[in-house]
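hi!! sorry for the late reply, been swamped w classes. u asked for the two structures so here they r. pasted raw, havent cleaned anything up. first the sequence of the first protein and right below it the tokens
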Amino acid sequence: MIKKILVLISLIFTFALYAEDKASLGGYCPVAYVNMGKAIKGDAKFSSSANGKLYYFVNADIKKIFDKNPEQFTKPIQYDSFCATAIALSSNKIASDPEIFSEVDKKFYFFSNKEAKEMFDKDPKEFIKKADKNWKSLK
């Protein structure tokens, strides 16, 4: 229980760090996550909007791939890229660090810090179940 409380406090303190960028995923390329499982910073010169969110891409060719089927690259991103652990434990939308994520069943879960990811990774199915339930009320 104490570890959960410490993780939540840590999540709140890291919120301000990643809440500044207006682009979804902190400006990281959604195509890179889905196609390569990597966090690669996009460039504002290559941007598109989908479902009311702005996305940056690595280059013009990647932007074209996204534009043909945005849902292919946005649907796997869970909880609008907010910290999955925070949603599961406290029903709070805490900004995540785009470089800290886990892939489970071709879906991407993001975290505000390494401790939140470690906690999630110990029992991802249980965290996903809790976060899915809490996310319904947060949407």
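now the second protein. again sequence first, tokens right under
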Amino acid sequence: MQKELILNLKKEISKKIIGQEEMVDKILISLLTGNHILLEGLPGLAKSLTVNTVAETLGLKFSRIQFTPDLLPSDIIGTEIYNEKTGEFHIKKGPIFANIILADEINRAPAKVQSALLEAMQEKQVTIANVTYKLEQPFMVLATQNPIEQDGTYSLPEAQQDRFIMKVKVEYPSKTEERTILDLLTGTENFDEINIEEILNKDNIAELKKIIREIHIDEKLKDYILNIVFKTREESSYISYGASPRATIAIVLASKANAFLNSREFVIPEDIKRVIYDVLRHRIALTYEAEAEGKTVENIIEEIMEGVELP
């Protein structure tokens, strides 16, 4: 039954999203583990469209926030407004009060906005005028950022990056996929009129989360994950600082979710390899020496994995 749900979900998403299976799977992994995800890619690679389409299939409240340098925390979480007629203040809630938040070009907002978002991501709550409001579950932030445009952007704080279970690099489609996209968007059918049906709801998602938690992972595989994460913390001329304990937890949960998407009740090494780069790439900081030698985070992760014995 669960397998059929996931197949139907992916089929519905594919009505508008051609290719990008990797991005779709990683978004579903984040959703089904109750986490947030950061999508990094060039403009025009359907990042925002994918998030929007996934939201349509879930029957959840969706909100899109365009991040800009002049954005204020109150533009996201809401503010206290004075009513002249009644002489009273009332709370106007912001777009953060939704289930799925598309934080478009998240690195264009300054630190004060990022700090307001951080409370929502970590605590699943926001504070307005000294009153704390719990956010409705499920709550998920899907953020996008452009890797090449640096003018008018702000680096995300390390603490905030750590709250994203994965940072996924979105690649160009293949020539065959792009031809299909071309036909879809320039053909006789109106793309905007393509109907996306609701496949999952809050109850389904809550049930699937429980199933994923119960997926078995062998103790030896847990040790394998720990050995990799601890390698990132060893003194190195290439690594400034390594991954936090959140990384260890994230790899296990993401591996379980990947096993679930592949209709298995247990984790295998391939599940770990499928998610580990996305989990670690934003949690390892390189030294100037590494950058001077042209080393990338992916190079470092690959070298670490080659040095850790697979059980």
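hope this helps!! also noticed smth abt the second:
The chain is about 45% helix and 15% strand.
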